[in-house]
Structures are given as C-alpha cells and as structure tokens.
Amino acid sequence: MLAGILSETDDGCVFQYNTDYFSDESEPVSLTLPFRKEPFVSNVMFPFFDGLIPEGWLLDIAEKNWKIDARDRMGLLLACCRDCIGAVSIIDQSNKE
Questions:
Q1: 37-88: per-residue pLDDT in tens?
Q2: Distance, CA of 47 to CA of 57 (rounded, Å)
Q3: pTM higher than 0.70, yes or no?
Q4: 3-state SS record for the chain
Q5: How far apart are CA 71 and CA 59, in angstroms?
Q6: What is the pLDDT of residue 42?
Q7: Sequence-ordered list of residues with C-beta below 8 angstroms from that of 35, at least 6 positions apart, any chain
Q8: CA-CA distance, 33 to 46, in Å (whole number)?
Q9: What pLDDT score was predicted for residue 88?
C-alpha cells in the first residue's frame, strides 16, 4: 500500500502521507514522521529516508555504476532503495512500470 509521496523541491524535500494509508492497522513510516495530514517539509533529506541509502563499499559501487554523486541523496534513494530491507520500498513515480 502506498504510504506517501516523497518529493524533492528547490528548497529541499517534502513528504506527504497518502490519505488512504491512514487506518487503525497502519503505522507511520517512522517515529520522526508521525501521522498527520499536513506535509512534512525539510531543507535536507529526512533522516528516515537518508538511512535507507547504502554506505561504505556498496555506496561506492552505486556511485560508480550509476554515476550518482554522493550528495545527490534523492538520486541515490531512487537508484538503490526500490527493494531495500524492511517494509519500505522507494518507487520513482516518473518511471512507473
């Protein structure tokens, strides 16, 4: 089920929960992103999503193979976290399959 939309703006990042995701059985994606109808706005990548990005040698491989700068956190998130460990997947909405 789609929990929400994470987007990158000129000023940083925005995360907005999908209203269909709110239910008694659903849980927030993170304690730092509790349920609310208003979007979360930050000038940097939210720590929860940034923590999904690989580190160390795996980050080095991602940077070299996909030619993504380590400072491009959204690019790394989209390239590396489609099928990451845990219950969260990151799907690029602009390239829906």
A1: 999 999 999 999 999 998 999 899 888 988 999 899 999 999 888 887 777 8
A2: 20
A3: yes
A4: CCCEEEEEECCEEEEEECHHHCCCCCCCCECCECCCCCCEEECCCCHHHHCCCCCHHHHHHHHHHHCCCCCCHHHHHHHHCCCCCCCCCCCCHHHCC
A5: 11
A6: 97
A7: 17, 22, 26, 28
A8: 9
A9: 84
Residue in this structure with the two tokens 């706005």, named with its chain if needed = 41
Residue 15 pLDDT > 80, yes or no? yes
pLDDT band of 96, cuts 50, 70, 90: low
CB 1 within 8 A of CB 30: no
User: Is 6 within 8 Å of 49 (Cβ atoms)?
Assistant: yes
Instruction: Tell me the C-alpha to C-alpha distance, in Å, between residue 43 and each of 29, 30, 78, 81.
Output: 19, 18, 18, 21
15 bridge partner residues: 6, 40
